[in-house]
Amino acid sequence: MYRQALVDHVSSSSFTKEFTTYTIPKEDGQSLYPFVFNDMMGLEKGDGVLVDDVKLALRGHMRDDYKFNRQSKLSEDDPFYNKNPSTNDKVHVLVLVIDANTVSMMKDEIVFRDIRREASDLGIPQVAIFTKIDEACPEIKKDLKNVYKVQSLEQKMEQFSATLGIPVNCIFPVKNYHKEINLNSDIDSLILSALKHIIQCGDDFINLKKSNERLTCFNKV
Questions:
Q1: What residue ranges do the domains of the chain occupy?
Q2: What is the pLDDT of residue 46?
């Protein structure tokens, strides 16, 4: 279990206040897996991250530890503004994380779509993760293996897909570690499956960029 990203189960507003990059160490403790997670403030209406800040982060202009400001976006003269982002600074996959219990109450679909359009303009693939599926669906709480058999969850995924346009096969349901203090293979299988698909999307994005660069060079010759 990874507990570096702090959470709050009491407040309804986003607990994340700074742009933070998380790396995952390998079992040997000497090296890291070749991917990172960039955690951002949530999109809570009136108390969440500014859409313009998300767009800057997608393009790699946001440095680690930038503290989000609801009153103004990151400016070019700010020390946390990265003027010359490298490929590693840029986002390769946009992941929308949403509580499965709140799908029917979504009110910020216009904001989500605005961010998706920006990501699409950059060619960045987009996926969604449904969390707390066991709380949203009693059948899953009884047996996590029922996750793809429960009609109510399927309906939530289809509703979310219809609202935001993300295909159902790009929406991954997971159960959060909440009460558990030891690893559980059923919980892990869903989390690792989602992670595998996210990494594959990132690989496809990078490979397509490289392919386009080679094609451009060929055309110039």
A1: 1-90, 92-106+121-221
A2: 67
